[in-house]
Design brief:
Strand order of the largest sheet: 6-7-8-9-10-11-13
Radius of gyration: 15 Å
Largest sheet: 7 strands, mixed
CATH architecture: 4-Layer Sandwich
Helix content: 10-25%
Number of strands: 13
CATH superfamily: Ribonuclease Z/Hydroxyacylglutathione hydrolase-like
CATH topology: Metallo-beta-lactamase, Chain A
Shape: globular
Distance between the termini: 21 Å
Length: 212
Amino acid sequence: MVITYEGVEFVKITHGDTTIACNPISKESKFKGSNFGADVAIISLNHPDMNGADAVTRKEKEPFVVSGPGEYEVDGFFIRGFASKSTYGGVERINTIYTFELDSIRVGFLGALGDTDLSGEVKELMGSVDVLFVPIGGEGVLDASEAYKLAVKREPSIIIPIHFGQVGDKTALKQFLEEGSSEDVKPVEKLTIKRRDVDGKQGEIVVLKSQN
């Protein structure tokens, strides 16, 4: 599994011939996003900064779009979505938290989560993920302190912050690393992991350099 961060909450995950785009930035957004063909587009929030299935569609490849709570299956790939709250953009909206498994690695994607009061079902599922993506920028999503506290309670092997830099609190990443006593962590261009790479880890913070 190879993971790159494309800005805002846009995450690209590839495994073999499969490409997954999480919260791709729409062409209608004021933010610049990457353009490529995806097999699956996972969308947490109906906002141009995160609902860009258009940006990951190509003539030869149109993604299967996952948008909203529920259970989804595409080519043997299972995704579960759970409703939560966000006030990103100044309006209360439904944000969908997703969990899925790829290459025997369980992934949790919190999207634009702005509320730490999660349901018992979501907490249980979050407690079993290996890699957890958390928004940290505030301004409608979790701030750095809230994000770190929520993440460590779920006990993932690896925590990856998103929603910083281009958008939200510009000091959020520094604060998040301080919360986790991980000030020495340096951003990397991409994260390449296999199942064996997550075994034995607990709460390790990985920062991905934005590609945009």
